[in-house]
User: Which sequence fits this backbone?
């Protein structure tokens, strides 16, 4: 399969390597400046140089895999235009639920398959990527005409030995992950804390919990069946994480990068308002994060 990846950071590097190990034809689509920069400074992954191929444009690919942060999505869409055609399947590894919607608007002839990547410990900073745990990829159809594309992805991920699950209800799974991100990412970011700070009983854990429950209420009002057991599950998943670890949004704040707030409270609060649901905790977290960003 010919695969183009846009976004050579923690996630793009990890999946680029897995696709290449699975003998796929992988190219990273980049603008001219990045091409120059990437070719001059080899990427180091887990201590070894990685020789990816970088192009500004290529013949239409079978799969377009987008792994920029949300702030890079508009330029990734522009970048992709000349390297896809109607047969190209599009996958977005971005957190949240809106990147697929934006990609469907930009590329109405293509199958954009809802996807979640999770559980990896990949980090990327200054041309260095490290990971030990590859995590897993969840995907699924939210419309009937996506079955053929899902079958194609199932074969690809299996042949590349990429841990994956083709799930029945991908919309529910995406809201479930969104609930975690709205809670843990935003609380750690707004209150300058790590996983350790929200694992102990106290006001921060309360905020984390209340933010998740607000997302659950918004999901349930749209008949998306998130349960209390799903909320509890995230508490159990987060428990063994190291106290010093921190979610991506807190890392963005430390690095003075624009956060992905638009994917979290920025997505849920407007939906809640339309449904007449109160979301005071999500709104307060958003205010705090905007204030931190404004002071960069
Ligand atoms: N990291 C993780 O463990 C997880 C991440 N996610 C989600 O996955 C997404 C990607 O995250 P992550 O990999 O951590 O992000 P990174 O910041 O590590 O990587 C994003 C990369 O995208 C590149 N980029 C931005 N715009 C363009 C463009 N127009 N053309 C080409 N490249 C571009 C940047 O390149 P440059 O460096 O040259 O500016 C950057 O290296 C996010 O939505 C994140 O929330 C989800 C689950 C886990
Ligand atoms: C699951 C979690 C919280 C892992 O840190 C994540 O998705 C993120 O950091 O963005």
Assistant:
């Amino acid at each position: 399969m010919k695969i183009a990846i846009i976004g050579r950071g923690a996630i793009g590097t990890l999946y680029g390597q897995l696709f290449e190990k699975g003998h796929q034809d992988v190219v990273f689509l980049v603008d001219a400046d990045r091409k120059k920069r990437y070719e001059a400074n080899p990427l180091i992954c887990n201590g070894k140089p990685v020789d990816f191929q970088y192009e500004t444009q290529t013949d239409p690919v079978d799969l377009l895999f987008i792994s920029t942060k949300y702030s890079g999505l508009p330029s990734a869409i522009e970048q992709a235009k000349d390297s896809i055609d109607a047969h190209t399947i599009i996958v977005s590894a971005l957190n949240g639920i809106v990147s697929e919607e934006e990609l469907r608007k930009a590329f109405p002839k293509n199958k954009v398959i809802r996807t979640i990547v999770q559980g990896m410990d990949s980090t990327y900073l200054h041309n260095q990527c490290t990971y030990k745990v590859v995590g897993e990829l969840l995907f699924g159809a939210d419309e009937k005409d996506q079955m053929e594309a899902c079958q194609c992805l199932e074969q690809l991920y299996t042949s590349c030995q990429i841990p994956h699950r083709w799930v029945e209800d991908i919309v529910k799974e995406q809201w479930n992950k969104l609930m975690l991100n709205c809670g843990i990412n935003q609380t750690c970011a707004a209150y300058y804390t790590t996983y350790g700070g929200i694992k102990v009983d106290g006001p921060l854990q309360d905020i984390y919990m209340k933010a998740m429950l607000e997302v659950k209420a918004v999901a349930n009002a749209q008949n998306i069946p998130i349960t209390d057991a799903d909320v509890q599950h995230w508490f159990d998943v987060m428990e063994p994480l190291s106290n010093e670890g921190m979610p991506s949004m807190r890392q963005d704040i430390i690095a003075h990068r624009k956060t992905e707030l638009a994917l979290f409270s920025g997505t849920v609060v407007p939906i809640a308002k339309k449904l007449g649901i109160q979301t005071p905790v999500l709104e307060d977290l958003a205010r705090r994060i905007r204030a931190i960003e404004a002071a960069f």
Q: What stands out?
A: The longest strand covers residues 111-118.
